[in-house]
Design brief:
The chain is an alpha+beta fold. Helices cover about 40% and strands about 25% of the residues. It contains four helices and four strands. Strands 2-3-1-4 form a four-stranded antiparallel beta sheet. It is globular and about 40 Å long.
């Protein structure tokens, strides 16, 4: 199952950039004992990397039983993180210091969705 973005994923992510901020939707499914590892990763992200790259956690919460979903589509945790740009996100994941802590995330998860979202422009 997919957990981490690869080089081709990041290139496509930047190529599709509409400009402006991006909110990353994270849907996380933990491995056995993975929540504690992920919390260690999240602490490093919050303390060191998000401030450096202008990121901000908008929401984090535990997933409950899905009201509408196919079997296997329930998630352990939902996380929304806002970045000032797609480039800021890519710069963060390219940071050598980030590479030192990202293994905690990789080992913590059995599956993840990392989906960029852009805010709708209000219709007048």
């Amino acid at each position: 199952m997919a957990v981490d973005p690869r080089g081709a994923d990041l290139k496509r992510f930047l190529a599709e950039d509409p400009g402006g901020p991006v909110v990353m939707l994270n849907l996380l499914r933990f491995a056995e004992g993975g929540r504690e590892l992920y919390e260690r990763y999240a602490e490093a992200l919050r303390d060191s990397f998000l401030p450096r790259y202008g990121g901000e956690v908008l929401y984090v919460g535990d997933g409950g039983s899905a009201l509408v979903a196919e079997d296997g589509q329930a998630w352990d945790t939902v996380l929304l993180v806002r970045y000032p740009s797609r480039q800021a996100f890519c710069d963060m994941v390219a940071d050598p210091g980030y590479h030192e802590v990202t293994a905690w995330r990789t080992d913590a998860l059995v599956e993840a969705v990392l989906q960029p979202t852009t805010e709708w422009t209000p219709v007048s």
